[in-house]
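Schema walk-through. Below, the input block comes first and the output block second. Nothing else is stored per chain. Lengths vary across the set, and this one has 323 residues.
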Amino acid sequence: MQQENSGSVFRYVDWFTVVLYIILVMAGMVSIYAASYDFDHANMLSFTEFSGKQFRWIGLSLVLGLVLLLIDARVYENYAYVIYGGLLLLLLITIFIAPDIKGSRSWLVIGPMSLQPAEFGKFATALCLAKLFSSYNFVLNASRKNYMLALLIIFLPVVLILGQKETGSALVYLSLFFVLYREGMSGLIMLAVYLSPIYIIANSYLLIRLHRWLGTCNPLFRKTGICVAISLAYVFLVASLLIAFFLPIGPARRIMKLISNYWLGILLYLILAVLMADAICFLLFLITKRRLKWWAKNLDIRLEFTKKSLFEGEKGELLEIIE
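--- output ---
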């Protein structure tokens, strides 16, 4: 009976994935060794080398994976929210105590080791989502409250990681929207989420252009209070789509839907107008640049002939150039 229980830990392990993972990890270690090869200290497993440090982390990850397999699955289910809350707290603390490494404050230095809490936050967020979805009578499409809870779980660590100036790790969390899609989220919503960065960047650019244009038309629009008011009104229009989605069915939702529909039409014309204006400015810039190069080239030729004439005393040629 004990042998059966001990063997049950590895019974449902996907060994193909495990072996594939080990091959990829070892290939990565060899690549690191090749990229940082030192002829004087050519030791792949030395902890002073980058490859040796990578090998140490590989060994620790395998041991940690074995420990996680040996823990009863009910522990993860019972303490999913606690683990998630603890990782959120750690992410918040990291912003203030982590050293600045190449503009990012996302690494905790503990003696000879460095840890990135954002990586541990990934499994904690996935675990918390799994706990939420396995709750009794939970259906994602049943209410907008369920959507808000799921999105809150995903975006809380994203905001904290962005506070650490670690955009790359924050983008990885967007892959969790595939989990929401599997739970019944509409494909159009998922597409809108993945296109939202483009939407935000485009509107940020339009807002900057709007402030510059208004400031050029009238100095009154350069005042801080007026700029803030215009920015808030613009942000409200940009967020009208999201506000209309989360509002309950009623008059307020209908009004926000109407505003968002008008806003999308206006936004399309704004983008077309700004693109045309930018294209014209770019063409004028290219034409001006070519003319400047032409004049600079001709001026250099004239100066060269003038210097030559003065040096050789060819006054006749100098007079011709001046004429």
